[in-house]
Amino acid sequence: LVPADRAKALDPLLDRTRCVALGLGGPTGPSGGSAAPSSGSAPGAGGGGYGSFDAALLGDFPFRAASLALASDPAWKREGKGFVNAAAGIRAAVPGPGLVLASSRPLEGLIEAAKAPGPSPLPARLEDLASARIAIWVPDPFSGLIASIVGESMDIPAVGILVAADPDGDARSPGYAATVAFLMSDADSARIFRPALRLAWYALARALLGADADGALGLSFSLDGEVYWAGGARLTANSLAGALARIKEGLGTGSARPR
């Protein structure tokens, strides 16, 4: 999701990570502000065509040891309540035991949010699905992001798309059992746009899932109130990572809103 030279700066943190919450943004950044480097920004932070990101990492991060590790590494310099790796364009902070925050932008907003968390960005209607090992939530997907990915505009008033995946337990060929859900504003919209959502899935599966697309095209979708969903997709880790990378590329276009 970030160039290898920038991602390498996070390797020591990722080795200790159990769970990651990641927000991706395009040229305007996840908060709607400019993602281009501003006065005091780290070189490459939010710029260089890579868009922006915010991340919260939960894991085995002893507060004092993690802070000391960043402070003693010459690549990281103190900046406000955190540290910045100017060469990588990444900021990091350890606000408490077991939590590391990382971003391509100044960290003050993330640190305040960690102190007083707000409501989940995931709709309550999809909470059960979102508890999967991997959950990819794309809000307001047809406002520009889908068009940037599939090359065709689709006028569908969807609230969002969720892909939820858990390991399928196949030791011989490890993969993930995935569910795809389109959330509409109400049951009538889901029913009216059902054919369009099916066509949208054909286009998205081919654009996002690479070698796994053929198997995902045959999913049997069902209506459940305002949700149009299908389970039973078998995806590899590579296809899920590729889907995230293509979503990030889509956010890098001017027509796609940040996520």
Strand segment count: 11
SSE topology string: HHEEHEEEEHHEHEEHHHEEH
Strand content: 25-35%
- The rough form would be described as elongated
Oligomer: single chain
Tell me the Rg in angstroms. Answer: 19 Å
Question: Spatial order of the strands in the main sheet?
Answer: 1-2-6-5-4-3
The residue-averaged pLDDT reads 82
How many H/I helices? Answer: 10
Ends apart, CA distance between termini: 14 Å
Helix content: 25-40%
How would a crystallographer describe the biggest sheet? 6 strands, antiparallel
Report on this structure.
The protein is α+β, with helices and mostly antiparallel strands and 259 residues long. The chain has helices at residues 4-7, 11-14, 63-72, 108-115, 127-130, 145-150, 187-192, 194-208, 213-217, 237-251; strands at 17-25, 52-59, 77-79, 82-85, 90-96, 99-103, 134-139, 158-167, 176-184, 222-224, 227-235. The protein has a six-stranded antiparallel beta sheet with strand order 1-2-6-5-4-3. The two termini are 14 Å apart.
